């Protein structure tokens, strides 16, 4: 088994035990989030309607009090794993290490600055069981509030949702990128979790999981509450453009021979769109570039992927100096 550095928390950890005993595994990546963690953990540890949850925390070598806060707030609890890594590797690698330790029927992932409404997990599992869906997503809202001010909120009991049998097509046609999703553990582990070649996992996890998933639900309800933001990667537009592009680029290259032709055309169009977002913000006279022409063309006609062209776009993204990359 992979060396997971320093695992603490559940002294009786047995990765071979019957996972049917655990209904949901929460997987949280952590890096210097001591400001948020008291409220995040208060909401997480008080999720309603769960029989036997598991909590997995993967710390990416924080140098603040993040680990101490987690240890203090989970002291004496069962099914707690705190993974203390001895080097900083990045979010995607961290989330995959947590996913590999999950034992529940379901896995729900979260960033360490996102707050779950107290009944959100229960509602998501209920819908998944009713429709036999492997993936459940909801909406999120940026509240601008202090973390502890939203740590005891509930989501509405009344909300609309849609169920789609074709998970991959649905993910490609909508917005499924925020953390907080619920995915069947067997699907998530079989697909390998996040693409570790992409630093931020938000795009690659739904893509990779939906390839194997049977059914997806999108709830028109806020299942994640975002408190006042102090500093996060969403402010780095180069990072976002880079990671969106590579999520689609690698997925298309990896599975081009097994995907429907129409799906390949959609993925190609998305990669061109990701590239155009970057070009529009960073190149002089962007509307006179081939990047813009191809972007518009892909909006009108389904195009066969040109991998030589995509490789050149990838080289441009890889040359960016202000983009974080995984460090395996």
What is the CATH topology descriptor of the largest domain? Answer: Spore Coat Polysaccharide Biosynthesis Protein SpsA, Chain A
Number of helices: 11
Rg from Cα = 20 Å
- What is the highest CATH level, the class of the largest domain? Alpha Beta
How far is the N terminus from the C terminus?
Answer: 16 Å
Mean pLDDT: 92
Largest sheet: 9 strands, mixed
The total tally of domains equals 2
Low-confidence stretches: 9-18
Which superfamily, in CATH terms, is the homologous superfamily of the largest domain? Spore Coat Polysaccharide Biosynthesis Protein SpsA, Chain A
Strand order of the largest sheet: 1-4-3-2-5-8-6-9-7
User: How would you describe the shape?
Assistant: globular
Helical content, roughly?
25-40%
Q: State the assembly state of the protein chains.
A: single chain
Number of strands: 9
Helical/strand content category: alpha/beta
CATH architecture of the largest domain: Alpha-Beta Complex
Order of helices and strands: EEHEHEHEHEEHEHHEHHHH
